Amino acid sequence: MTTATTRQTVADLPTVSGHTETLRLLVPQTLIQIQRLLLRWWRDPLTMVQSLIFPALLLIVLNAVLGKQISSFSGASALYGSVPMVALVGVMSGSVAGAVTLGRERDQGLLARFWVLPVHRASGLAARIAAEGARILMCTLVLFGVGVALGFRFEQGLFAGIALFGVPLLYGLGFATLVTAVAVYTAKAALVEAVSLGSSIMMFFSTGFVPLAAYPRWAQPLVRHQPMTYAIDAMRGLSFGGAVRTPLLATIAWSVGAMVLFAVPAAIGYRRASRG
Question: Which of 113, 219, 238, 255 allows an S-S link to 174, with CB 3.0 to 4.6 Å?
Answer without folding.
Answer: 255
